[in-house]
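Here is one chain, start to finish.
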Amino acid sequence: MATTDTHVPAFKNKRAMRAGLGAFVGTTIEWYDFYVYATAAALVFPRLFFPDTDPFLATMGAFFGSAVAFFVRPLGGIIFGHIGDRIGRRPALVITLVLMGVATVAVGLLPTYAAIGVAAPVLLMLLRAAQGLAVGGEWGGAALMSVESAPQKQRMFFGGFTQLGNPAGALLSSGIFWLISMGGDDFLMDWGWRIPFLASIVLIGVGFWVRYRVEESPVFEQKVEGRDQSIPLVYALKNNWWPILLGIMILPIASGFYYLATTFVQNYAVEEAGIAVEHVLAAMTIASFVELVVTLPLAALSDKWGGKMMMYIGVFGSLMAMVPLLLVIGGGQVALMYIFVSLVRVMMSATWAPLATIMAQMFRPQSRYTSMSLAYGIGAAVWGGMTPMAALWLLEMTGTPWSVIALVAVMALINAVAMFLAPQHSDEAPVTASYEPRLDTTAGPTINGKEQ
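Its structure:
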């Protein structure tokens, strides 16, 4: 591979579409596996794997088990980011898909506390950690495959295919639990909860076939492959520390708020407000479908309005929508719950739809996979992993949902400030053979007189 190319040739939409569809299918399966666990953690795991404790502690135990995946996501980003930056985006994504599938099916085969005692929750957390490793390397690579294969003026739209996998996976996971819940609580708690986990083996086979056929990222081929480069993690920490930090801080709503609107809200509705499980799952399923429908249009609008503007709309819209959602749930108003659960997800989608492209363009090509995955992994650990537990603790301590709303307000403010400071780079800028940091930033702040 020659090393003298000074630009990436014009991308063809056909290649971009294949990459986008591959990212969509792969991330749908990965997020399905991830959210199946999150749904089970809210609805069944407290009774199956933590039965001998106070209900509040059992729920916290189940939520902590879910949070374990977030804590190991940065490690997954480092491991698979190294593979993606050195060998290629595609090989890293094939490995993450297989790892996620094996861990998910294993959860479906796992004995409960009643059968093997304390070993059950320990094994559950280990398998959740394996899921975290997989998803820690999955999202960044899938985002880069779709964004780097897209025309410069349509990157938000094609990056939206990666984001489309999240609501699609959530739709599948909440939908299958909704169908299973119709068999009654005894069926769900006896063995019905295992079905969503075991079904993953079929999805993984489909995803492996689709992902293996997708071409490598053209940016990797033109600007990274065959060039001398340092260890990706070392380069990332030395040269990309500022955008990594900003990347962490633009995730409170896109990541943390999502788990408030799903895992925490489900538990709040069932355990605190006494709303029937089937109503909660139905509302979540409908909301996931609504999110699935609006994600690509919002991504396309981001190309016209700007990704940052779309994210500002989503950040403050999410805060405004969360207030009536928690109040109507607390009041047991089931019909209104259906409406506001979907409205919250639409607002959150305005932060989610442009996120893949915004974060990809925060970094130059070298060590981009590692940098992006590290920022997303740490951000998800901080915001996604801790926010549901923080909200549950605040609710327990104060007895009012307004404390949770205050938490969301702080998250929204942090998100907005970081978004304002985030740099955006263009892959159309020529790359230097030495990979010295270059001032090809199209928008960003300055520190000590140097553009970041």
